[in-house]
Design goal:
The complex is a heterotrimer of chains A (316), B (500) and C (537). Chain A is an all-alpha fold and 316 residues long. Chain A has one domain: Orthogonal Bundle (ABC transporter involved in vitamin B12 uptake, BtuC), CATH 1.10.3470. Chain A is built from 12 helices and 2 strands; from the N terminus they run H-H-H-H-E-H-E-H-H-H-H-H-H-H. Chain A has a two-stranded antiparallel sheet. Chain B has 2 domains: 330 residues, ABC transporter involved in vitamin B12 uptake, BtuC (Orthogonal Bundle), CATH 1.10.3470; 116 residues. The chains are: A mainly alpha (316), B mainly alpha (500), C alpha/beta (537). Chains A and B meet through helix 3, helix 4, helix 10 and helix 12 of A and helix 7, helix 8, helix 13, helix 15 and helix 16 of B.
């Protein structure tokens, strides 16, 4: 490590921690956006992240390539979301209850998987990580070098996916249809577009992105899967989605903000060593700030048709 | 939400309040019977899926379920013991739900209640009865406050309770962890825990070393919540707000007050559950003592259809699952986590009552078809059965994929595994199509049969005779059945149309 | 063309039947033939099955039995897309528009032109692969502008639906059908949200369509409209086709008889009012709606005991907020509301109720009833916390037998058709649901009754009943504030009429001393500014 102005270094470090903490949140929040913009509440993001994190490690373990592991995680997340979509869209189930089922299934199946695959209780074997993108020219620049010198490619994906989400949602026919499905499904139906398919695709997309977010945790940030390793990140992503007013840029900024808050908990004990005995209290900070942030915003307007199963055959 | 039919209980009978009467009336209600079918159907479906999962992961399904059942039947006191906190958390979720709120964080409220009871239990010294009462009350009160806060945020700031209760749940776990690591730590112990509570604060045991007085409290809570919801002005207003806050407001009911209060009472119930656990059994607060009481509570409430008596029944069911699950883990070697998977699946299926309606309707259809058209119907049924079997065997063989790698031929093994996995998906799809009596299902079964024969050949190369025989048998039988349906009974009314 | 030997039919519906999952038979074996290029009126009461039949033709609902032929060709309509591709367009009663989206986005939804060879000019169905290509927004907007100009329907393609008036929204709906090249246009109750003048504009547009050779199906429950516009008129009652007549061969009286099944009295029978002292006095009331937009701007009003004051106005001009402010549901910014001289400004809804105000809300499903509650529970809603319904310490225990007894009595007096007072309110028909609300609100012995759209969506029988009940409450001395979008209702029930426009009362008239045309002009805000018909934008 280079030596420089310690304050600058700390800033760089905080910047990096923010990006690292924000990536799973932003990806998952964007996923949630696709689901909720089409009208399906997705509180199962937590479970989809967990399954993504687990399958990334398990996939890497079996196949030997973290990149393939990443793809497997995306597919697994999407598949679990598919179950949510079938329950909510095909069978008009209660979105929140179904989402809870997804979380429970995610918690249970991944912990079970730990025992089945590795015969372990809390932590999997280590696997190869996704190699970080190193920018040698930046290495020696103070602050920036610390922040951007060596980052996981998934962090760059996050930026690309944010832009892509914006494009899809606001500039393509599919995005227009998704927005219509969430605001007023019967209008979309009257325009001759299948509400069910639009919603199912939106939900599956959300699971895929949550799976990617989970995979970042297990093979981008860490190199193993730990029981319950998402620790509520799915819910924080949900909060970021609300805080970001269901828009891609909003999700991105809110995700960065919550990422920053989560990053702070690493910085505090370094800044103030006396706080070490309060580590557990400092860890509460992101959760508490999420509540404060949500309570503080004036008004965020969810899509109108959210959480309402679309019933075509009712008397109009 | 299609709650209307579920809520359709005859809540206003002229009879005085009487729990037994209540139950009898409930049982005779058709909408209750429908819910009961949904709940039971969900349990059965979940168990079916879990069986497949166990096969995939190479456990002995028969042994697992036998030990589970045995463990549940032989240790009824433990079943009730495990059920006790679930009754409280289940009631907590159910009561909030009646007011249209989803209390997803009873775990945190349980922790706050537990730490409250533990503090009063070991720091304060009071005579018996009074001590227990105070400790319980303090824990309950902490739970109340911990539920009231998100309630107030929801009512006055519109902050979504699903996010806040969950965030507060994580906060409570971290906060109590800090408490027992530093200020309240029993310094004579290595583990992070409080000193044990005084004997005066311990709740009396009922039977054995597990079952204690908190069960009585739980049952009283069931009666009290039932009374609150159905026979009081407060309960009426909460239900009104839960069903239609705008209409409630128009009628002069204050939705904000009711929302805040409903989450507060929900928190109090969970807090009382936590206190009961500490005072009745654990006798001290240890870091991470409860793993998932909150989640279990949600499951219990959902399975019990948010009805207090349903919660009681569902809690006992989950107590049995847990007691039996421990036995299962010990004897059949199936990890206890399988129980959590079952829970998740049950909740998922309960969310989709129409799936169960659809399946039961299919069942009735088949029964009538079997009566009128015996031979073609049974052949058709056998084909469906083969599709299902093919999917299950596929998945279970897929599970032993790692074994194949270790057998030395990873390349062929990998192809076989991938093929099997895809075939299982095709078979599941075929099964669904066949259940809908669509001709496409038949073609899919034929396709799966061809893949099976391919797998047999690959299995021969890989040198696994088990795979060869399994694949050959399934492939041949499937093929035969498809030929039978196609050639011998071409007039079989496969496509009877409309499944709505 | 139609004059030739063989009549060409644009649409033939043969033996169409439709039963909803709830068991309601909406269409019973209906056979209906629509000629090419005609304006066909489809007349019937609320709930007669008109919309259902046309939604089946539009592919929006599925039929149980029967055949559909479009230009002689039998078609199987799986979704509206199938109907749209065959040139069928529909303007729904409740507009199929999405408020936060722009006009362009709403019009192109489902048939989005994408960049890359495909031009908006060539209307090509978007396939799955192309639904991720960028939308040609500019091309689409140009096309919309051109269609609008050709048909004299001025519209700004970039405006958001939530920012434009209801009349303009309907224009967007019509442009939507034109954008899809529809030549069979179905209009479902197109005039229900318009002022009389806007209706005239609409009729001009429809005449133009007819000249252009388009076939128009006009669904309505108002007798006047098909008599003005239609060539032939079909009447539906209780899901059955009663008959099809030429306009020249019929009269409004005959149509009314066909529609209702008995002769209809057009006016409410009531004696002269005997107004007493002022019950409700509103002074300089200013109210903001939930979004913070000022909806009521300094209204002054008085309602006397024993009088019905009708508020006429196009929806969205502050009526809702006015009523909600009186009921305590919205807080007023300025001004006072006095009830019998006592200030009730700023009281909460319960206190307003206790002061003697009853409220029949305009949206019975949103504010009037709790559909998941039983009829008995709904009948005590609002009074559940008082004796005799609440007993015990602190009036916290419900006395359910008391509630049952009173519900039985209400069901009896108001002849509400229920099988069991313990069945859910959602199982009742719309008319009976409304009767439950009316019974509950009127049985509280109110001094003031706020009746907002009390007969919306009800059939003639239930409407008559509710009008009579209101009149008899007036005769017993209650003050009644009636808000209605139906000018006929206002004119026939009220003793005085106040016209509301843009949050202000622009005139107060006696029903005998005014005409529908005058009220229509006032409702459109023409008093101040005669020149611009577009003032609402």
């Amino acid at each position: 490590m280079q030596t420089g102005d310690p304050m600058l270094e700390l800033m760089g470090w905080l910047l990096k921690a923010t990006l690292q903490m924000a990536t799973p949140l932003v990806l998952t929040a964007l996923g949630g956006m696709f689901s909720e913009r089409t009208g399906v509440v997705n509180i199962g993001l937590e479970g989809m992240m967990l399954v993504g994190a687990f399958s990334a490690v398990a996939g890497t373990y079996y196949v030997g390539s973290p990149w393939l592991g990443l793809i497997i995680a995306v597919i697994a997340g999407g598949a679990l979301a598919g179950a949510h979509a079938i329950v909510c869209v095909k069978f008009k189930g209660n979105h929140i209850v179904s989402g809870t089922g997804i979380i429970l299934f995610g918690l249970g199946s991944t912990t079970l998987g730990l025992q089945v695959v590795w015969g372990k209780q809390g932590l999997s074997d280590s696997v190869e990580r996704i190699p970080e993108v190193v920018i040698p020219q930046l290495r020696d620049v103070p602050m920036l070098g610390t922040a951007f010198g060596s980052l996981s490619p998934i962090i760059y994906f996050m930026f690309i996916i944010t832009a892509l989400s914006w494009y899809v949602l606001y500039r393509t026919p599919f995005g227009l249809r998704m927005r219509a499905a969430g605001e007023d499904p019967s209008t979309l139906d009257a325009a001759g577009v299948s509400v069910e398919w639009t919603r199912i695709v939106g939900v599956v997309l959300s699971g895929a992105l949550a799976g990617l977010g989970g995979a970042y945790l297990s093979i981008g940030f860490e190199n193993a899967f730990g029981k319950g390793m998402t620790a509520g990140k799915g819910f924080i992503a949900l909060a970021a989605l609300i805080f970001g007013n269901w828009t891609p840029i909003g999700c991105f900024l809110a995700g960065l903000f919550f990422g920053f808050v989560t990053g702070l908990q690493f910085i505090f004990p370094i800044l103030i060593p006396e706080l070490v005995t309060l580590t557990n209290l400092v860890k509460i900070l992101p959760y508490a700030l999420v509540i404060v942030a949500l309570a503080g915003i004036r008004r965020s307007i969810p899509p109108k048709g959210i959480a309402v199963p679309y019933e075509k055959e009712v008397r109009v | 939400m299609s709650e209307q039919s579920r809520e359709g209980r005859h809540e206003n009978e002229k009879a005085r309040f009487n729990p037994i009467n209540n139950i009898m009336r409930m049982v005779s209600d058709p909408s209750f019977q429908k819910t009961a079918i949904w709940s039971t159907g969900s349990i059965i479906l979940a168990l079916v899926v879990v069986s497949v999962l166990m096969m995939m992961t190479g456990y002995n399904v028969g042994l697992a379920f036998l030990t589970l059942l045995w463990g549940a039947i032989t240790q009824f006191d433990r079943v009730l013991f495990f059920a006790t906190p679930l009754i409280f958390t289940g009631l907590s979720v159910a009561l909030a739900f009646k007011c249209g709120l989803f209390n997803i964080g009873p775990e945190g409220q349980v922790y706050m209640g537990a730490i409250g009871a533990a503090i009063v239990g070991y720091l304060v010294s009071l005579p018996i009865v009074l001590h227990q009462f105070t400790a319980l009350l303090f824990g309950t009160f902490l739970g109340f406050l911990y539920g009231l806060l998100p309630g107030i945020l929801k009512a006055y700031r519109g902050t979504h309770e699903v996010v806040t209760t969950m965030m507060m749940s994580y906060s409570a776990i971290l906060f109590t962890a800090w408490l027992v690591t530093y200020p309240l730590k029993d310094t004579t112990q290595a583990l992070d825990r409080t000193p044990p509570i005084l004997v005066t604060a311990e709740l009396p045991k009922l039977i054995g070393s597990f079952l204690n007085f908190s069960l009585i409290l739980a049952i009283l809570a069931v009666i009290a919540v039932d009374y609150l919801i159905n026979k009081t002005v407060l309960g009426y207003e909460m239900r009104a707000v839960g069903q239609n806050p705008d209409a409630a407001e128009t009628a002069g009911i204050n939705p904000k007050k009711n929302i805040a209060l409903a989450l507060g009472i929900a928190g109090a119930l969970a807090g009382m559950g936590g206190s009961g656990e500490i005072l009745g059994y654990h006798h001290l607060f240890q870091d991470n003592w409860s793993v998932g009481l909150g989640w279990d509570g949600i499951t219990v409430a959902v399975l019990g259809n948010n009805n207090p008596w349903g919660v009681l029944a569902a809690a006992i069911f989950f107590g049995a699952l847990r007691a039996g699950g421990l036995q299962m883990q010990r004897i059949a070697g199936v990890p206890l986590e399988m129980v959590r998977v079952i829970q998740g699946l049950i909740v998922l299926f309960v969310a989709a009552p129409r799936a169960i309606d659809w399946l039961s309707k299919r069942g009735v259809d088949y029964a009538t078809w079997l009566k009128t058209d015996r031979v073609p119907a049974s052949v058709h049924l056998a084909t469906s059965f083969m599709a299902g079997a093919s999917a299950i065997v596929c998945l279970s063989v897929f599970g032993s994929y790692s074994a194949m790698i270790e057998a030395g031929i990873p390349g062929v093994g990998g192809i076989v595994a991938l093929l099997l996995f895809l075939t299982s998906l095709v078979s599941i799809y075929a099964l669904i199509e066949l259940l809908m009596r669509k001709p496409r299902g038949l073609r899919l079964v034929a396709f799966a049969a061809i893949v099976w024969l391919l797998v047999a050949a690959l299995g021969y190369i890989a040198g696994s005779m088990l795979i060869v025989w399994q694949s050959l048998v399934i492939g041949m039988v499937s093929f035969l059945l498809v030929v039978l349906v196609e050639r011998v009974f071409p007039e079989t009314p496969l496509d009877l149309g409309g499944d709505n | 063309m139609p004059q030739g030997g063989l009549t060409i039919y644009a649409v033939e519906l043969e033996n169409i039947s439709k039963t909803f999952p709830g068991g309601v038979e909406a269409n019973k074996n209906i056979t209906l033939r629509i000629r090419e290029g005609e304006v066909h009126g489809l007349l019937g009461e609320n709930g007669a099955g008109k919309s259902t039949l046309m939604n089946i033709l539009y592919g929006f609902l599925s039929k149980d039995t029967g055949r559909i032929l479009i230009r002689g060709e039998e078609v199987e309509l799986q979704s509206p897309q199938d109907a749209i591709l065959r040139g069928v367009g529909m303007v729904h009663q409740h507009f199929k528009l999405i408020p936060p989206l722009t006009v362009t986005e709403n019009v192109i939804l489902g048939l989005e032109p994408v960049l890359k060879r495909l031009r908006a000019e060539r209307l090509v169905e978007t396939k799955h692969f192309s639904s991720l290509l960028p939308i040609d927004f500019r091309g689409a907007a140009d096309r919309i502008r051109r269609i609008a100009e050709e048909n004299g329907l001025h519209i700004d393609p970039d405006a958001k639906i939530q920012d434009i008036s209801v009349g303009l929204q309907q224009r967007v709906e019509i442009i939507k059908t034109l954008y899809r090249n529809a030549d069979i246009v179905i209009l479902d109750e197109p005039t229900s949200v318009l002022t009389p003048q806007e209706v005239d504009d609409l009729f001009v547009t429809l005449e133009k369509f007819k000249e252009a050779g388009r076939t128009i199906i006009l669904i309505t429950h108002k007798l006047r409209e098909p008599m003005v516009l239609a060539d032939r008129i079909s009447v539906l009652r209780d899901g059955e086709l009663i008959g099809t007549v030429n306009k020249e061969d019929t009269s409004p009286e005959e149509l009314a008889r066909m529609m209702v099944g008995r002769p209809v009295v057009f006016r409410v029978e009531k004696g002269p009012a005997n107004p007493g002292g002022v019950v409700l006095a509103i002074k300089d009331l200013t109210v903001q709606d939930k979004r913070g937009i000022t909806a009521v701007r300094g209204i002054n009003l008085e309602v006397k005991a024993g009088e019905i004051l009708g508020i006429a106005g196009v929806e969205g001009n502050g009526q809702t907020e006015l009523v909600e402010a009186i009921a305590g549901l919205l807080k007023s910014r300025e001004g006072n509301i006095l009830l019998n001289g006592k200030d009730i400004t700023g009281l909460d809804p319960r206190e307003v109720r206790e002061a003697g105000v009853s409220h029949i809300p305009e949206d019975r499903h949103r504010r009037g009833l709790i559909l998941g509650f039983t009829i008995a529970e709904n009948s005590t809603l609002g009074r559940h916390h008082r004796a005799p319904f609440a007993m015990g310490p602190g009036r916290q225990v419900l006395d359910l037998s008391e509630a049952d007894g009173i519900t039985e009595a209400l069901v009896d007096t108001y002849s509400i058709k229920v099988s069991d007072i313990h069945s859910l309110a959602s199982t009742l028909s719309g008319g009976n649901q409304q009767k439950v609300i009316v019974a509950r609100e009127l049985s509280a012995n109110p001094k003031l009754i706020l009746a907002a759209q009390p007969t919306r969506g009800l059939d003639v029988g239930a409407t008559e009943y509710i009008h009579n009940v209101l009149v008899s409450m007036r005769d017993e001395g209650a003050a009644i504030l009636l808000v209605s979008a139906e000018l006929d209702e206002i004119m026939s029930v009220s003793d005085r009429i106040a016209v509301i426009f843009d949050g202000q009362i622009v005139a107060v008239k006696e029903p005998e001393a005014t005409t529908a045309e005058e009220l229509g002009l006032l409702m459109a805000g023409h008093k101040q500014d005669q020149s611009s018909a577009e003032a609402v934008v």
